[in-house]
Amino acid sequence: CYSFVLLNNYGCSCINNRSHSLTNDTLNFLSTLNQTLTCFEKYQLGNHTELCKSCKKMYGDVNKLYGRMEKNDTMCIDLEDAMNMTRRLWSKNFNCSLPRDETVPVLAVSSFMLFLPVIFYLSSFLHSEQKKRKLIHRE
């Protein structure tokens, strides 16, 4: 269970000011985080490849939820710390990774740029007038 540090100077957004209870976003994050950590515990002694495959969706969900909370400014230091620990486990301890969304566009643009000179010189060669060589014959 997590103990929350109230940092009034930093505007802790994990706790509802009126009821002094955890916000719905915080409860949802903690639930998703606990499911992810439970998955890690289940597969940590076996093959880490199996852990990466089995826990990928849960880890992705907690990552997306964290990103959304970060954008909405509903984050506090305890949740940041928990997510840092989870990311460290995922990447360093278990050597897992998530495919990045921007990989495909980057590869497409890079491939296009790579072949652009080839296309340029080929089209230049095909569209230019070729000078025919005249052979001078000896008489």
Automatic annotation (TrEMBL):
Key words, A-Z: Membrane, Transmembrane, Transmembrane helix
Pfam families noted in UniProt: OSTMP1
InterPro entries per the UniProt record, alphabetical: Osteopetrosis-assoc_TM_1
Domain of life: Eukaryota
GO cellular component, as recorded: cytosol
Keyword Membrane carried by entry: yes
Record carries keyword Coiled coil: no
TM annotation in the entry: 104-126
Protein name, UniProt field: Osteoclastogenesis associated transmembrane protein 1
Originating organism: Gouania willdenowi
